[in-house]
Batch of 4 targets.
Target 1
Amino acid sequence: MNRRTPIQNFFFYLIIIILLLFVLGPYAWMISSSFKTAVEIQGMRPTWIPQTFTFDNYVQMNTTVPILRYFKNSIIISTGTMLAALIIGTLAAYGISRFNFWGRELYIVVLMATQMLPGILFVIPYFMMFKWITDTFGLPMTNTFHGLIFTYTSFALPFSILMLRNYLDSVPRSIDEQALIDGCNRFQALYKVIIPLAKPGLAAMGIYAFIMGWNEILFAKILTSTKTRTIALGLLQYISQHQARWGQMMAACVFATIPIIIAFTAFQKQIVAGLVAGATKG
Amino acid sequence: MKNVRLLGYIFILPAVLAMIMVHIIPMGWGILISFKDLTIRNIRNWQEAPWCGLKNYIKAFNPVTTVGQRFLRSLQNILVYGVVTISVGFFIALGVALLLNKPFVGRTLVRGIILIPYITPDSVAYNFWRFIFQSRIGILNEMLLRIGIIQEPIMWLVGRNTIWAVIIASIWKGWPLTSLMLLAGLQTIPMELYEAAKIDGASAWQCFKYITLSYLKPVIKTIMIMNILWNFHAYNQFVVLFGENVGIHAEVPNTLIMREAFENYNYGQGSALSVILMLMMLTITIVYLYVFRAQRDE
């Protein structure tokens, strides 16, 4: 392509800088506020740089709201969702990718269609279904980890399966056949040969399920209470009708972002590839 | 051969069972109770709640009732929200994708950075936006006052401006994914096409229109339908920015249904509203696919 003139170059980078300010500005505000004193936040005109620098918000964020417990809850729920989605999803994706059975096309269409359904349609039935299961079988569902893991897994599955199937389709079938000739049965072929080859695809799928569990609010709001509340909901508790603890909330926000940032930086390539594949092939 | 087919079923069985339990049955249940007068009084014995025919559905579209009035307004709000958020977000995304498709120093870094809003958890992102939008202690009003665009602090989170606050925050959060997908689409366009076009004397605009856009069409098609459907799902941004009381200017179907079901305890009514929402999304998807298919055949 053409070389840019110095003036064009100047404007080009100017736009890039404005773009970065737009994207990163809110984070700068979050981080700087998390180091401000409550007096500064409430009493002075807002500034980008804290006038008195303090770690108090980080020290005290757990006394106002049990954010560490909510963090632990979210870790349990998101990890559970990730594992369940990985196991069930891998089997299903392998099934669709490798076998030609009656109803296969229909099943794929159903998978695509379920993603379209509004979550709100399920909230009320879930609320009732959980009550009904508890009343009938004596198995507690509302306000339990397994209840929420069950819910999230099922909502993460359709996209996970489609995403992983795209990936498995790119692994040649001859590899399976070779494994079968070498004396593996189908499950062994999947477990010993295909899964190691499909690691990037599995990583993308696992992270997708984990992030979904970490972010979800709608169902968590109805199906959890103090014991199992997730961090996404916990963050809202810093603002009550009597007091708004913005500094602590910003500290907790920084804290809640860390696992996602770690997960994302570790698997950035796979996640991006997975998302893009979903978009361009769908 | 038969064995192989059977194996296929075994592999998808757990997923199918899970989805029957979590999608099909609850959906049927939801549709069923939308025809019932189900409230806090009879939630435990939901089977015995009286049938009420289409009452919940008729109420939803009757502007004389409170629910109807609120529902129609929530549809109006989600329409404004969706049109502005999707279109502005799309143009930012397209502009940035075109920019990032050009070689420059630090491109990989910039591409990584613009994805940060997308991966930030919703509750975190909308919570800091809530803080940014605070009228007295928020940074947005402070900056606008400093530059002199406004003379008085704006009340972003109360009253008329609420819809704009949620639109701004949603655009900020939503465009990176669109941009990423467009960028992936741009990278599939062979460079030779542009060179050939240039030799033939095509202008930059013609290149954009006939090469870039026509190559991006399938990606744009996917992005648009996804965005339109997600727009109807919108809930997190509203509940995080405004807390329990969204207020009439930013009430959307999801927040209304949640309130109707879990604050007013009209479960039947709430279900009816969510079934209507589902039917609307279904209609939109079918019309959308139909229109695009018709175009392709031309």
Target 2
Amino acid sequence: MTKVAPPLGLLAELSHRCPLQCVYCSNPLELVDRAAELGTDEWLRVFDQAAALGVVQLHLSGGEPLIRADLERFVRHARGLGMFTNLITSGVGLTAERAATLAAAGLNSVQLSVQGVDAAATVRVAKAPVFERKRRAAELIRQAGLPLSMNVVLHRLNLDRVGELIDLAAEWGADRLELANTQYYGWALRNRHQLLPTAAQVAAAEAVYRQKQAELAGRVELIWVVPDYHERFPKPCMGGWAATALTVAPDGVAYPCPVASVIETLDFPSVRTHSLEWIWYSAPAFTAYRGTSWMPDPCRSCDRRDLDFGGCRCQAYALTGDAGRTDPVCERSPDHGLVTAAVAGLTTRGATERSADDLIYRRYAEVSS
Amino acid sequence: MTAVIDIAARPRLVTKAMLRYDPVRESNLLLLPERVVRLNESSAAILARCDGSRTVKELIEALEQEYGTDGLAADVTAFLNAAREHGWVQA
């Protein structure tokens, strides 16, 4: 096995508290309580260790990171360590003062989430009347001189309006828009029957994206994150398990990716009891699926094993109960029928069904199953 | 957007980009919100001088003087064209 490279990025989930209740949220169903969150000094120590380990990009996320009053301090500290700092926010809670203090602290960029093209579409997905506040947040970010990128998670409820969503990002002054087709983890998996689009819907939206991409070239960079249920091969998730980045959850538990807490068969280490260096290089949960030696067939002998690394471990676990199996999205997976059945199930349900009655909204309070 | 950068343009790194030396990787890096680019020495030397204060022509002259050579114009402009295409510099 080749030498393990140090991580480039750290996703710091500062809090799971969030004013939005998005149906596609990738946070775990069991959200971390406020009382269990890392304190200011604990996070500062994590950033020190991350910088020493080789992390050069810090993504401050959540939940809603603006909920933390020590956010500016984190930005200033991380910049002092030479890290690039990126804020991933719903925009709710951003004021002119906050935008100015974040800019003064050295924040490098902001990624603002958008759920829909207007107030009604936003409420439908986020169960919170926040559309106008997002519009205002985009203004404040730009007025503070901060580079603005935007992201929208795409699914059956908003894919048909992808053109309007792209226009919105251009109008609000984003220089980049990530069109992220829903990946089915956490709350999104719970709502999969409502969120999964048909292949025809995806194809139509992708055609709009391509046309807009040409129109907006040089103004807004458009990124299309593929809807993997509709692909033949899995996504090269995170560039392989524990290969380039890591996540620290609000309670200090470290994961190779933001949704890995779904895997109950691994014992994920905490920054409260271990150094980030030990976690990255030695924690069994991080070494378990690193490289290619863990692979079963069909991955082990597959010509694509160094392209997609067997796909996503979290998806393999979520769908089969075994994180060591081939990602069922892959057409060569013995479990591929699980994915084709989910997609095929749409035709009987009717793709135009728009009832939101059985959408399950993310709840910060404890979840009953 | 023109295909070839003007020799009189004053290229500068885009606001969201950050250039730094990384002692862990012993390498110069260009940091952007969603990507990290590992730079070779000459790319780093060019980008470090893209601060909007000098023209492409002046930038080439400064590099030729510093490295005690000449004939860098073609390589530098080719790199700057690519860098602008990637969205790393504006001019």
Target 3
Amino acid sequence: MNENALQHDHTISISQRRDDYNYYFSVGYLENNGLTVGDRYKTFRTRFNLESTIARYLTVGLNFQFAERDESSVPVNMNDLIRTTPWGSYYGTDGVTLRASPNDDPGNNSHPFLGQTYERRLYKYDNFFASAYVKGKLPWGFSYQVNFTPRLDFLREYRHQSALNPLLASRKGIVNRRNQTVYTWQLDNVLNWNKKYGKHSFDATFLVNAEKFQSWNTNIQAENFAPNDNLGFSSLQSATQAPVVSSDDQYATGDALMGRLNYNYDQKYFLTLTERRDGYSAFGQQNPRANFPSVALAWAFSDENFMKNASSWLDFAKARISYGENGNREIGRYAALSNLNSGTYVYISAAGTPINVGRVAGSNLANPALKWERNSSINFGIDYSILKGVISGSIDLYDRTTKDLLVNRTLPSVTGFNSILVNLGEVKNTGFEIAINTNNLKTKNVEWRSTISLWSNRNKIVNLYGPTPDYDASGKQIGTSQKDDIANGWFIGRNINTVFDYRVLGVWQTADAAEARKYGYKPGDFRLEDTNGDGQYTIADKQFLGMTTPEFSWNLRNEFKLFKSFDFAFNLYARMGQLTQFNEAKNVDLFYDRAQFYQRPYWTPNNPINDYAAMMSNAGGPVTWNVWRKSTFVRLSNISLAYTLPSATTKKWKIDALKVYFNVVNAGVISNWKYFDPENKALTPQNFNFGMNLTL
Amino acid sequence: MNKKFNKIFLLSVILLVSIAFQGCKKDWLEPKPLSIYSPENTFVDVLGFKAGLAGCANNYRGEWYGDGAPIITELIFSEVSVEGTNDKTGPAQNMDLQIRPDANLNSVDFNRIGWFWNQMYIGIRMANTILTRLPEATAVSQANKDIIQGQAFFYRAYGYYRLTHQFGDVPCPVKEVTSAKTDFQTVKREVILTRMKQDLEFAVKFVPWVTEKGDVNRAACYHLLTKINLALGLFDDAIASASAVISNGTYRLMVNRFGVDASRAERNVIWDLHRPDNKSSAANAEGLFMVTSRLGTPSAWTDGTPGMRIMRQTVPGVSIGSTIFTPSGKVGMVATSGVEIDIMNIFGRGIGRCRSTSYHYNMIWDDIKDLRHDSTSGNWMYPENMRYNNPALKGTDTAYGLRLRLRGPTGTLLCEDTLRRWYPWPHYKVYIPDTENTPMQGGHSDWYVFRLAETFLLRAEAYMWKGDAAAAAADVNAVRTRAKCSPYTAADMSIGTILDERARELYWEEPRKTELTRIAYIFAKTGLPYNGKTYTTANFSTSNFMIDRILEKNEFYRKNFVTIRGDVFRISQYHVLWPIPQEAILANTDARINQNIGYSGASSNVPPLDKIPD
């Protein structure tokens, strides 16, 4: 029921340029079939750009874009599909209707085609996007631009589950309708000054920005349709059971002020000074705005006299040093407010009739003092080009400190809350990035270029909540210290993505049965390390196992141009050393005796392996733990081959250009990881694209 | 021309910049919540506070509802039930191994101890918010303030009554928490209960005797006060608070037929009492405090799953895979509904998760007239009430349509596992018709939290502790004779007899573990003997009434029954108190929350507080 899926994508565009105006127009259509039967979506998009110079000093323009995405198709249910055994029956006893459970085990298996057969959807997403601008030139090197960028998103998700679905028959039709409108806009005012005095050049920018987000969402669920549900999702009024209705409207605003000065002397000495002031309404109770300064210096030292000797091999070299601060506002629009969720509850009157009454329940703690998360980083870098551009690239070292991180801090459940959004402590990041571009070969008929980048990052929690008092056994204060936050897995001096868990040593083997029983396990269950040897698993046995983020990453791209007409390229990238959860190895997905499943290794007394537990192994027991495995991988992410027809030929055909191409996306991956894709633990499609670009 | 144009352009620049600067004004960034309430704009008038109180009720309702309902965890730590799931390891059967601070304590596939810990504290937090904000609400009259305060006291006391008997000494916040508080300390159980007693003594002065059903009334406050009085060993106070409800007259035991099935002669008052439509009906005078759920009301959806699903939990799992066989060895049952013999839509598709013990379906039934165990009227059901329904048997096996049999003609077992698939059950309690799930699992219904029958049994218990067996017998008999049993004599009475009566009357209503622990504390405090043995508070976690009673009556734990998966039923003395979930201790970075004796981490305990911190 997974299929080789066809995708197609067509675009037609027209553009024209005249003295005082130019325009661009395009229409596109894309249809994608997913890997699962019935999983397809369609997109139509169109775009119109117009720019006109209405006076020598003034240009106005409009970019307009419309897109509609259609995701109405109902794919087959993969979970049910996996579970259906080859001995099941597709149809019921009448040979026509779908069997509710092909395995005749409704508690564990439903017909994978039930949804596709008995569910109708209209899932359409329409987006309008526009950008209107005025650009003008002013005297003395000034220029000015105003951008207004509105965006409207409409969403319609209508869904009808038919009364004919044998599993839902008693509910006589279920309809969900969701409508949402999102309107956002941005207004940017940019004043620019550009001037040269001899070898001094100045480029100053001043920006004023405002933005607004508004959304309106309505949800309706209705069921029990009479006289029938034949009208699908289009007749809510015939639902005999009171529909469940809810709405959620949201609002947020932001603004920014920015000033920047770029100065350089003789293209040798560079200075950039920036000051930003950003505001966001989610911090609006006490600290809506924050200032972020930065300064950068650069020196193109290859142009200095003392480097003349090196000019035979060194084309260009520039040293950079910068200090910069910036902010992060990635939190919910209302995350800092105490949110009283509302709903209804039923009381029953003295006469015995139900009455719906209002009900509120707080779901989180307010944090009016919440503020922007701040990054400050010192960056040192070199840009270079040597041997006449055969090798070029950059090297960067950085030391970034993040303060006031926006995180959900786990609270003692005694508060009645799970967590609170807070600005927390301090995390230090250090790392490097290296980029190398090489022109390996350049002959008349063969060109070969490579791009390599390598990077690595280490982080460390420097500070959490500050020091708190320590007490001795009698309750006397004996000092203060910083405490780790074990509940959140945050430890002073450790990586914030550290994995603190029990180490899985292997599988309890038959010979270990007696020992296993002491710990509450049996042969075939995973064996954890009892680090303190006290004969039981407790939190004292947890250890630091590694990190969930890569220790080291790299990308490599190679491009070839052959005989001037063929372009060939391939891309490799790698993530190395990270840990990924692999609880699938516990083999507890479902009741294997009642359903089908993926073929996966499992322990038996006759197959005494150590990396997978027995089927239905004890996956929890006295402690909760996860299986972690390294998911290092190298992926051949893209291969592309293109042929451009020689212009002599195309001219003959009265066309400007013709290019045909063939791409393979996700061509292959090398990894020890055993369960689907190492990057996302899911089915990742491999795409083969044939395409043609025609320019008239 | 160009000069002029330049000027216009400059002017428009100035204009636009000044508009943009509007953005930088303070109120531009003021947060505007459009669809959410805040405490500041809600807890200002009577309706706002009432909505907060309804939120408390809604929060506690979850105990009886949904798949793997939390009440099952209360029942399996008692004499009446065990976890019957036999196809995976995880469900709480071997308490020694699985009930640990670091184990999964809040999952349908394990146990729901953590649900109680979290949800009771959420209820307490909601009540604390109301109580902290009420004095400042100038728009609420003093008379209304007293009622609201009393009702909020009820919800807070309810939470602490449960926590102190599930976990013993626990932290005790009594004010609204408004910032990241991480320095909670454990408070002595008796200190907390004494405070709750004071609060409820306030509540019973002001909360009205009659409110809408589902809302808190004075009877519910007295009933909870009775439990707390008992828990503190104040038996005279308990008799007084129970008598206040019993003698008030508003609430009465239902002794005559009533409600939806009243005209069906084959049924009886016990059946009537537990019909979904009758629990909160105008005619029903027995319910003191109800939680509510009505199909077709918006709140019915907040359960998460459709319906209570109570039949799924409690009815034997005769249709899970191929596990019930006809005498000729063919698969006897299918789970499909809509077949000719539609068993699944009569009893619901049970999975035997909450498996009744022989104590519950056999040992306690000492009077054949007892309507609560009557199978002729259909109140009780046996596996033999079901019939082989597999359509494939029709015409090929003479067993089709015949009653299920446990053994074949030669004595072979016709059932894969009697733990999960073969036991009698109280149909009148768990039969909640279900129009949402196919096959039925248990639909929507109101549920009794406190019922007058229990008030009688609480007063009987108080008399018994005082040694007044005659008065105790009179109260027990009020409940017994309503169910058509012969009365007990004073000589029949003991705490054990009262516990048996509770098991007969209050299945899937009373939190059995909470009540057993309460009684265990009383035995330890009074030094009164049970089966000739006495207990002390000092050794509560190594020798107590509760676990002795479970081992006496629940043969699964006593005999260390082994499931077909090889898991063993075990329970130990220290399980009288549940473990404090480890994450609560860990997240409390700035002070120590004590762990209960017997669990890892208890060695780092500090002395519990004698006073509730402000």
Target 4
Amino acid sequence: MNKKVKSMVKQTEFYVLCIIIAFAVIIQIRSGQFLTSNNLMDLVRSMIVPGIYAICALLSFVSTGADVSFPLIAALSAYVSVVLGNKWNLGVVPIFLIAILLGCLIGCINGFFIVKYRFNSLIVTLGTSSICSGILFGTFEAGRTELPEKLYTVSKVNIATVKNSATGLGSALPSTFVIMVALYVIAYLVLNYTMIGRSVYALGGDEVSAQRAGIAVEKVRFGVFVVNGGIAAIAGLCYAMMSYFYMPNEYAGAEMLVIAAVILGGTRMTGGVGTLRGCLLGTFLLTMVSNSLILFGISVYWEKVVIGAIIIVGTAISAIQARNAGNPFAGKKKKEA
Amino acid sequence: MDKMMKMKKKSLPFDENVRRLFVILVVLLLVTGITKSTAFVNLGNFQSIGKQLTEYGLMSLGMGICMISGGIDLSTVYVANLSGICAGLIFQSSNTGAGVLAGCVVAILVGALCGAFNGMLISCFHIPPMLATLGSYELFMGISVVLSGGSTVSVNGEIELLSSLAILNIPLPFIIFLICTAVLAVIMGRTKFGSRTYLVGTSEKAARFAGIHVKATIIKCYLISGMLAGIAGLISLSRLNSAKADFGTSYTMQTILVAVLGGINPNGGAGKIPGIAFSVIILQVLSSYLNQFPAISNYYRDLIWGAALLLVLVFNVEISRRAAKKKA
Amino acid sequence: MAENMLCVKNIKKSFGGVHALKGVDLTIKKGETHCLAGENGCGKSTIIKVISGFYQPDEGTIEIDGKSYENLTTSDAIAAGIQVIYQDFSIFPNLTVMENLAFNQVLAEKKKFVNKKEFRKIAEEAVKKINFDVDLDARVESLPVADKQLIAISRALLHNAKLIIMDEPTTALTRKEVTRLFDIIAELKKEGMTVLFVSHKLDEVFEISDSITVLRSGENVHSCPIHEMTEEKFTYYMTGRNFDAIPQKEVPDFEGKEPMLKVQDLSAPGFENVSFELHGGEVLGIAGQLGSGRTELSLALYGMLKPYGGTIWIDGSEVKLNSVADAQKMGIALVPEDRLTEGLFLPQPIYKNIAVASMDSLAGKGGFLKESSELELSQGWVEDIGVATKDHTLPVMTLSGGNQQKVVLARCLATNPKVLILNGPTVGVDIGAKYDIHQLLRSLAGQGMAILVVSDDVAEVAALCDRAIIMKGGRVAGELDGADLNDENLYGATV
């Protein structure tokens, strides 16, 4: 038991949890508004899309490196499926399928250049992101678009609502929450209980060993980026659903915070290490900070400063920890001969 | 044993990559000149090209230097904005000659400070450059928001001259860009510092053992990048008569594209400064050329640049593969 | 039942015009421990990859346990009982011990799902075979190198291995760990396991193997039972040269002379209370195994490790070495332990590697550095030291290990050091280059340089140094000089 507690404490996730609890307590004391049902529900609601994006970031970091294309893949796939959904009056499932298909296709582009030419994944995904943007705004001239009727109906469905009797403020948890939970459950099962999932981690840990063990390294890596495309597409539709409209300009720029959240949650940039639990914690922390600054008594103007500071401090701590872990000479004496 | 050694001629900062870019530029100019000669080949157009490329051109130079050192600077646009806002606030309060000078100095100083901050995060705290500049860009943007009250900082007055003045018909901003390129090419190609930057970018560990001050080298790189961003911010302020916290967010990606297209290896240790300059000019000429076709909207630029990036990377790989085969 | 576990004949393999193997024979009897020896580039790794099915030979026959194989694939080899343990162990540092042990097997069985219980069962079975006590849930990256190797061995034994091939297994092990490894090999031998052992370490070869095959430049040179091999023959077969022993050095007399380097009660993370003197013209050895503190001592003397106690004097004046720059200013140069990651900028040209530490002196006003001055400096050193290259603008990674080490040496010597520290100067260097480097060091000493050789290779220390200090467990454990400075004494003292 002691061993488990010790190993738990060493992990980054534990620290993040502590910080979350600390923040929560402070905010609650200052405003009394944190632990209210409507605030908590708002928080969870705000986490849905970044949370789904976080799975993409996790998969790419664990196996390869940075992926910054998911917001624009989301935007483009969602647009096409919404437009087609409007045109042909499609149901919810077909719309999602179209989006996922397109997302995966774009993911193939990423996969191709990253696997065949072994280019830096940050650069390739920057290129793909750019291409998606060009197609979305240039070729399609996308603008604010109404959602297809059936999709709109589903988006209005809330699985839970709360109303804070004291303040009269209410909040609702939309159906997209179910999608996020489903994705996380599937991801958890695949990453931990299938050989393909473990191969993703193995490949990120040591590519040569993975090859020697018989893992089809190229196929697995390609698959990761294809899957990322599909997941991003789902996130894109969810975002549109939660806004009740499709708005193309809202997507770009989301990647940086998602990456920060995932790293804060313990994912290593060098690969091989990272958990879904950490992603959720990291996303929750950053969402909490952006949403709750007002409750903290800090003007919204300072939001970015605070987030920037958290990212810097968080990554500094994680970097120092990583150095101490990998360097046996750091302050220790080696005794045996 | 054969002791004949190949003595390399004094090498210009032009390697294969740069020569290729130069050829592309010439071809491009010819094509544009021929196909749209009246609209394209005129002084006004070239002047506008020169003016528009300066801001992200300067930032690309900074990005290139950081990449050579083995890192990346995602905060460059926001440093530019912050510098612009600081200078703008000073211009707002005093419109005298001294005020203008003070504003310019402040802009560059702010840029340098931000750059040094980045450098310290990376070298002293060992935060990976991508994450460090990700955090710092939020920070800089946040400070910009606070200082500007969340709104645009507008200026009028002498500062406008910076972007509107032309010497011998060449726009001043472009001259500044050329001067910066030349200075940086000399620094990176012919000084100890430049040589050391390439080595640090190749292997930080080996650099340490060789006695190179890795920390100082990295901080200097980001400091230079910050200063370049500061100048860019100043020019932007001058051109648009305003500065705001979230201006030019797409520039970050553009500068990375430009640097990589210009031959800088994103893993560090390779690439030449003139390559970046050629790459910027090519892209701006291309962009301006496309403007002549009203059917191609501005947004297509993103598509073309994204595709161009991937294609150029592939092209470079194929060329080196073919060259290696020939040698074998 | 075949007498031979492995019999390969006339194996030829080329890679795009480079003949890696020109017709190699290798015969290993069942149950024997066979050593495969040869310099870098002799074809050792290639023949192993052919035997394990990773490469297909262009010509030749392969017979494993009496059965002939036309096109041996890796799965065929594994099924036939061949297991290779590479130098890097092929482990996944980010996964647990349990997963590392079970992964390959479950993958080979083409299973799609992960059954944690099954993994654990497989893992437990594996470690039992060699009585390896380890925490199955620990992440492998947190374990010491020796444990990682044992994981690799346990994993290899899972597959009903009949022939285990180990590629340079003792490179990163302490003496104690090597003993443990050899005990395990002895146990395996008792159970009838055949072992192919790639090594260049003479003493280990003699200790563990039953017979030996020496390769050179892709061809067989000699094979024989180990009792027919001697050290001179070994060296001769490996290099094709006869080396005159380096003339017996007279122990120089430094009575009354100021030491070039003096260390008093120096302590830093890794070692404690080390004191010694080194005179100009003297070659002093610091002998010790991995973990003895010898590397940390070399780093502390180069400004890379801050001491928390003690004093250092260079040429009579007390100095504080807080950075590499400080050390270089004081005239200290270090040839690092790992030349690939610490000593060289692999993709950079040879001349840049040589000039890197001299930039300050080559540069003019304002920090301007002329490339021609770097080229000139480099050319001089390449000729003086004898780096085998026709074009020093080529990347240094195109050179062989020995020549790369000479480049690192050139870079150090270019700074005109008073004290030259070398950590493991001939690790991974062929015997020919090793001899050259030793000659060079002795001649430098003859010219008055103070030389400190830090090494775990007792033969090297004995042959090269005038005097040796032994380090063990972070402390000075003894000193040997004159006639007492020989292999046996050193070996006994460092263990």
